[in-house]
Amino acid sequence: MNNLLMLFIFVPILSFVLLALNVLLAPKNSYEAKVSPYECGFLAIEGQTRSTFQIHFYIVAMLFLVFDLEILLLFPLAVTLYQVSTYGFVIALIFFFVLTIGFVLEIGSGAISLTDSHK
Amino acid sequence: MENILLNVLALGTLLSSLLVISSSNPVIAVIFLISVFFNAAGYLILLGVGFIGISYILLYVGAITVLFLFVIMMINIKLSDIVETGSEYTKNYPLALAIGILFIYEINNILPFSISDVALITALTDFINYINNLFLYQDHYSLVNILNTFNPSIADISITSFLQIEAIGHGLYTYGAALLIVCSIILLLAMTAPIFLSRKSKF
């Protein structure tokens, strides 16, 4: 019985109590225009609401994944830098440098800019 | 307490994964995929592997689920096209049954299921083991060679105590330095692939 266990028990109970209070006590007057999703005034006709998906969103997410992996591999260095002192730091510098090459390539090619700035 | 929570988390993972593959709305399927990842991460943290559990939440929920959602946004799915009813849905049952039985059979070969006190199920597993030993000669290798870390809890014989992430850091940045550099080169390749695949101008 420590603090983390009480947190794990208390948070679901609190969220369920709040949801139950909303379901039981809130008034519901729903008609069709209120329940259907809002699309800036357009009616939900297929073809009017979807535009072309730009690939830059996916490129941003995938590059975020790669850099997230790099950050994850830097976490153990952050807690053990005193013990692995100079040697470990140089290893981390080489690791970082190789990934900085990729970062420079990404910025220089303009792969994640939504507007065409390199004509 | 931890044993019950392990079983609850394992059950949550299995239920969520079943709901991933059988829900009709793709976004609801991704929500249940998030639930699978959270349950698996909780299971790993309870087992004591805290670093890998937190990395599951960071990477899987934080980045890979976002990729899944982007793919669902890209593919223009109308919900009426993918809802299958009646005989269109049940035609998949024999193949699912075959693959499920094959999977359970293979896992039973490696880690035998142990269900005590239920005579019918133990008779069935004994029969399957007997058939196995007739047709397949196998040396039962044991999976019990688990390294126990020497971690005394009595204060006067413990020299020092490291956290798990500290132990990983010590090993990764000194003895595993070559592996770390190779990993950085792999990540560099993984970075250049989307950039080159999606460029418009030639450089």
Overview of the structural elements:
- The complex is a heterodimer of chains A (119) and B (203).
- In chain A, helix 3 packs antiparallel against helix 4.
- The radius of gyration of chain A is 25 Å and the shape is flat.
- Chain A is mostly helical.
- The termini of chain A are far apart.
- Chain A has a single domain, classed as Methane Monooxygenase Hydroxylase, Chain G, domain 1 (Up-down Bundle), CATH 1.20.58.1610.
- Chain B has 203 residues and is mostly helical.
- Among the domains of chain B are: 93 residues, Four Helix Bundle (Hemerythrin (Met), subunit A), CATH 1.20.120; 41 residues.
- Helices cover 71% and strands 0% of the residues of chain B.
- Chain B contains 9 helices and no strands.
- In chain B, helix 1 runs antiparallel to helix 2, helix 2 packs antiparallel against helix 3 and helix 8 crosses helix 9.
- The longest helix of chain B has 25 residues.
- About 2% of the residues of chain B have low confidence.
- The chains are: A mainly alpha (119), B mainly alpha (203).
- At the A-B interface, helix 3 and helix 4 of A face helix 3, helix 8 and helix 9 of B.
Short key terms for the protein model shown above:
heterodimer; A: 119 residues; mainly alpha; Methane Monooxygenase Hydroxylase, Chain G, domain 1; B: 203 residues; Four Helix Bundle (Hemerythrin (Met), subunit A); 9 helices; 0% strand; extended
Write the layout of secondary structure elements.
The complex is a heterodimer of chains A (119) and B (203).
Chain A: H1 3-25, H2 32-35, H3 56-80, H4 85-109
Helix pairs in contact in A: 3-4
Chain B: H1 2-22, H2 26-47, H3 50-74, H4 79-82, H5 87-90, H6 93-110, H7 119-135, H8 164-175, H9 177-197
Helix pairs in contact in B: 1-2, 2-3, 8-9
